[in-house]
């Protein structure tokens, strides 16, 4: 191979690597109510894996509002909460999703079929709904400690 061809091949490989690095993966965090765990997971993944992952969340049976404890726990950690709202999984079905993460057993069991095959992982967390703020903080910290590395591993980031 000529030096010119080798340089061209190396440049193409570098461009492909850079393109892969700049293409963020969409991660759907799924739970039942989409009011606590999945909302916190969405905010944490978007902050911890910024540029690599675009996290969205949904529920199989969404609640009317995000739990106040979840919002407060996120804000206490300096995480943005603007734009977080419960949504049904059907609202995100038309998006290209690279990974589905169920964070509760019910969502894992009732997870819908997506239009194309999507890798799934299950990383369950305690449901702090209706509990004291300390419980939300504990779950928030558990999500950061266990979910971020699980998503990194599942997507080979």
**What is CATH's topology name?**
Rossmann fold
Q: Give the N-to-C terminal Cα separation.
A: 32 Å
Strand content: 5-15%
* Total strand segments: 4
Compute the CA-based radius of gyration: 18 Å
The geometry reads as: globular
State the share of residues found in helices, binned by percent: 40-55%
Biggest sheet details? 4 strands, parallel
Number of helices, where a helix is a run of at least 4 consecutive DSSP H or I residues: 5
**What's the CATH class, please?**
Alpha Beta
How many separate structural domains? Answer: 1
Task: Calculate the mean pLDDT score and round it.
Answer: 86
Strand order of the largest sheet: 2-1-3-4
> CATH superfamily membership, which one?
Response regulator
Can you name the CATH architecture?
A: 3-Layer(aba) Sandwich
Q: What are the low-pLDDT stretches, counting only 5+ consecutive residues below 50?
A: 4-21
Class inferred from helices and paired strands: alpha/beta
Q: Which series of helices and strands comes N to C? A: HEHEHEHEH
Helix and strand layout, with pairings?
Blueprint (H helix, E strand, L loop, with lengths): L2 H20 L2 E7 L5 H12 L4 E7 L8 H9 L22 E4 L2 H6 L9 E3 L10 H23 L2
Parallel strand pairs: 1-2, 1-3, 3-4
Helix pairs in contact: 2-3, 2-5, 3-5
